Amino acid sequence: MSKILQNIEANAFLTAEEITLSKQFIEQGYCIIPVEDLAGLDKIRAEIVAHCVDLLKCAPPDDAGAFLNSIAERVGVAELNDFRLSVFEGVNRQPWLRPTYFELARTALQCLIGNELAMQRRVNLSIQLPGDDSSLLPIHCDVWDGDSPFEMVLWLPLVDCFKTKSMFLAPPEVNAEVQARLKEFRGRSTDDLFEEVEPHLIWIDIPYGNALLFNQNVMHGNRINVESETRWTMNCRFKGAFTPYAEKRLGEFFEPITLRAASRIGLSYELPDGF
Amino acid sequence: MGERAAQHVQNIIISKYAERQKLHYLLSATEYSMPNCYMILEQLLGDLAQLEGLICYSLFMLPTQSAEREAIYRAVIEADASMHFAVEGLVLQSGQDIERMEALWLMRNILPHCPRELPGWN
């Protein structure tokens, strides 16, 4: 383990709360926190439900969670992706979405990443119907797909998520051990990799009202949802605004959201010239 | 700003963008290849009265000097036109959009100077 990941508790510049959360994140690869703005979460979910109601031309439900959980009664696998994209486009058109999403975990994001952040420009929406094998994410690390190792994901359940109605991730020590010998999987598949780590995986149990922050440099993904209810989750990447970008570039994918006064002054300063 | 894709690839991206945004794509224009030359862009800016706007491949193909970019933004806004950037999916239509474009530009300029490692730190 790199020295930089150790001994954070000895850092005299961090508060006890910052040390606790940071240590948990480094050691586990994730943290589950109660959302910091429950009204904001309810607003996001209500907007999602409103778009669904509009598309399905059905009556608004009394219970948003039950409605989303049982969406498979109204939407089949064949229509799912078009349905999901319509809802995704609709909710991302709301100018309040990204600030509200950020507010759900502002303190935790600033503790774990920093207070000058860049945020993904659109918040992703994932719907996984029971038994559907068309919307699977094979085991992967986002950094293997070209993402910057400085990115972190804020994953938000819109319904209670558990077991196969959720996602899995590999603990950092398992991840490190497998990554060190990943070349052994040359000529083999992601299913082979999954089988290797399956006994060690953590399935995230996270009720509505909570948010998951996870390290996208550890192996994670999902499998077929064999529960009776549909998974609805959103996810969005954050990173330090001035940390290295990779395939997900500044401008086309990320945008700064909390540039502070000193950075604004520094960015716009020009030395006198013409000498 | 080092943004380079083959011209025919840029044309595909731009025309797909126009199709998705339901913009009436008239024709493509190719800038002269000399570094820091924007004569074709200047010509198009002069023709804005006859156009609804322009679609550029990328925001980061604009001039590296902020004063020159500002002049371009102003020309577009004063012509009551729009300037689209296909790769980033951004649109300049009003003065409010300038801040967003410039924040991205200024950050892009500074990032090569940010440390990628912190030797000796623990």
Summarize the SSE layout with pairings.
The complex is a heterodimer of chains A (275) and B (122).
Chain A (H helix, E strand, L loop, with lengths): L15 H13 L1 E5 L3 H19 L7 H6 L7 H16 L4 H7 L2 H7 L4 E4 L3 E5 L23 E6 L10 E2 L2 H9 L9 H8 L4 E2 L6 E6 L4 E2 L9 E10 L13 E3 L4 H8 L7
Antiparallel strand pairs in A: 1-7, 2-9, 2-10, 3-9, 4-7, 4-9, 5-6, 5-8
Helix pairs in contact in A: 2-4
Chain B lengths: L6 H14 L18 H8 L6 E4 L9 H13 L3 E4 L4 E3 L2 H16 L12
Parallel strand pairs in B: 1-2
Antiparallel strand pairs in B: 2-3
Structure summary:
The complex is a heterodimer of chains A (275) and B (122). Chain A is built from 9 helices and 10 strands. Chain A is α+β, with helices and mostly antiparallel strands and 275 residues long.
Description:
The complex is a heterodimer of chains A (275) and B (122). Chain A is of the alpha+beta class. Chain A has a single domain (15-259), classed as Jelly Rolls (Sandwich), CATH 2.60.120.620. Chain A has nine helices and ten strands. In chain A, strands 1, 2, 3, 4, 7, 9 and 10 form a seven-stranded antiparallel beta sheet that branches. The longest helix of chain A is centred in the first third of the chain and has 19 residues, at 38-56. Chain A is globular and about 70 Å long. The mean pLDDT of chain A is 95. With 122 residues, chain B is mostly helical. Chain B has one domain: Resolvase, N-terminal catalytic domain (Rossmann fold), CATH 3.40.50. Chain B is built from four helices and three strands; from the N terminus they run ααβαββα. Chain B has helices at residues 7-20, 39-46, 66-78, 95-110; strands at 53-56, 82-85, 90-92. In chain B, strand 2 (82-85) and strand 3 (90-92) form a beta hairpin. The mean pLDDT of chain B is 87. The interface between A and B is medium-sized, with 18 and 20 residues.
